[in-house]
Amino acid sequence: MSLAVIMQLKTGQRRGCRGNEAVERRLTSRPPPYVGGCRRLRRHGLVVFSLITVAAAASAPVALSGRAMGTGWSVKFIQPTPALDLDAVARRVAERLEALEQQFSTYRPDSELSRFNARVGTDWFAVAPEVAHVAAESRRVSELTGGAFDVTVDPLVRLWGFGPQRHTGALPAETDIVRARARVGWRQLEACLDPPALRKTQPGIAADFSSMAKGFAADAVGDVLASLGAPNHLVQVGGDVKTSGGGEAGAGWRTGIERPLDDARAIADVVVLSGQALSTSGDYRNFFTAEGRRYGHIIDPRTGRPAASALASVSVVHASGATASALATGLFVLGPEEGFRLALAHRLACLFLIRDGAGFTRRATPEFETLRR
Prior knowledge:
The chain is α+β, with helices and mostly antiparallel strands. An eight-stranded antiparallel beta sheet has the order 3-4-8-9-12-17-18-19. A four-stranded antiparallel beta sheet has the order 1-2-10-11, with no helix packed on it. A three-stranded antiparallel beta sheet has the order 5-7-6. The longest helix is centred in the last third of the chain and has 25 residues. The protein has a single domain, classed as Roll (T-fold). The protein contains nine helices and 19 strands.
């Protein structure tokens, strides 16, 4: 049995919209189908975590890797017959990620999302279908979590020193927190699916989909591999994973979840995935300590402050990588009690690791337990 350890960082105008009713229906129903998407690595809800893929069969899958959007990507797939040209596959993956970066990046001033954010008007702004779909799904998860997940939280992320300007030691003043919170509110970002468009109902609102980014990108790369004739694959973008098929042994892809330690690497659990995505959110890599207190990078948009509880990490398995990423963030903000109750109520496959002295208490939903082998 061989172990492959992957350590990565966990990142036009329209005057009318005919799709508002469709969007609202999606907010209370199943998530929209995803074409995929991605952006640069900065995000408030997805952190460093390691994944272990356990190879248990004689015929190893083909492996490719590269860098795009400021992070790393890798794929493993079982070669179809006839075999795919590996250079061509790598090129197609890189091209897909680059195209989506141009849509979703908040670093590139000419990206689609940056141009939307720079607008001060409240008219509909035409976007790519991918952007509209992820915006609609972000609203659904925001509603599900009671606002614990919010893609408009970026002003608070920057204020606390977790954006491009890193924390310098001083805590934000209360007046600055209040001012930043006035520019946050998921209900003030609207999405239209037909035609695809976004609208802000308050001019100061800006969208940042980094909290769904790498999971969304993993979905997209999986679509690329399937279109090339390689439906049996594992995709990793940053630290998020999306799988398809039965892996090399036919039973699924064995994937590990990291124990949330500040300064070490260890595996807390292993799940077997086939057609599902895995995403983890936690505060055990990106945090600072001030006045004897720990401040993590995942901000609670309801309070304007870093989420504060004994919860160290939340891992979510879902059919959609983008949705898994968003849910992991929202559940982490909700904390070990309220978050776990929500996961149970909606039958989500989740693992909560809660700090308990020098160790951790493990709480998993029944749906998660069925994925363990």
